[in-house]
Amino acid sequence: MSLRGTAHTSTALITGGTSGIGLAFAQLLSRQGHNVILVGRNTDRLHQTAHQLSSSTGQQVDTIQADLADRADVQRVAERLSSQDEPVDLLVNNAGFGVHARLTSEDVTVHDEAFDVMCRAVLVLGGAAARAMLARKRGTIINVSSTAGFMAMGSYSAIKAWVTTYSESLAVELRGTGVQVTALCPGWVKTEFHQRAGINTTSIPSWLWTDSERVAATCLKDAARGKVISIPSKRFRVLMWGIRHLPRSAIHAASGRITSKRRAPQSENGEVR
């Protein structure tokens, strides 16, 4: 991805940047010559990933230890995004986790944390980045959503539907300002996300899987082209086109079948990726 109009070495801030799709973004952007700021909860993992990236690419890699379920930590990250002296040219809101607590569960702790990490943090960080980018009349915000947001598979689908709609709404608000907003909506991606979340993937056909580097690369290209919705791989674009045109009753039935097949016996709670 080319961050046009930048005289300095551009900087990307990536939440959840030590694994999965976030790490793929970090690796790809670092190889392309961008400096990177990794945001994550695990200090050891942050430092290890930063050292590996910096050693292999020669680019500057900084870290911010933060739990995005903690509002004070989110504010610290927002303050970094607000800096005009050390501008962030690209924000990737990637941090997230699988949620399998039932919507009828009396204990809503997991839902509360999911809202904080995948909705509120995205809103606060997206707003902070947008304000700073508006002042410079350039920048890119990528919010990692999911094709699950087009389905009806519990709290995770509802949250990702919000992320997609929020991204579209922010893109409308920022139209013509030089700030690009893109929602990344991947399907099944080969990462440790599913294992950590306790998702049973044995029933998923091999042809539906894609790799995280391809997902990140496709999204960066789509953002550079001004696309608001990025769905990596032709097969998922075709599938999502079909889903958008099917009766909602058919989507509800399909969502129920997928949920029952992939729910692992122990997966009542979400697991942070």
Walkthrough of the structure:
By secondary structure, the chain is of the alpha/beta class. 48% of the residues lie in helices and 16% in strands. It is built from 9 helices and 11 strands. The chain has helices at 20-31, 43-57, 71-82, 109-136, 154-173, 193-197, 212-224, 234-245, 248-262, and strands spanning 11-15, 35-40, 61-65, 90-93, 97-98, 139-144, 179-184, 188-190, 209-211, 229-230, 271-272. The chain has a 7-stranded parallel β-sheet, with helices on both faces. Strands 5-11 form a two-stranded antiparallel ribbon. A two-stranded parallel ribbon has the order 8-9. α6 links the parallel β8 (188-190) and β9 (209-211). α3 packs parallel to α4 (109-136) and α4 runs parallel beside α5. It starts with 10 loop residues before the first strand and ends with a strand. The model is unreliable at 264-273 (pLDDT under 50).
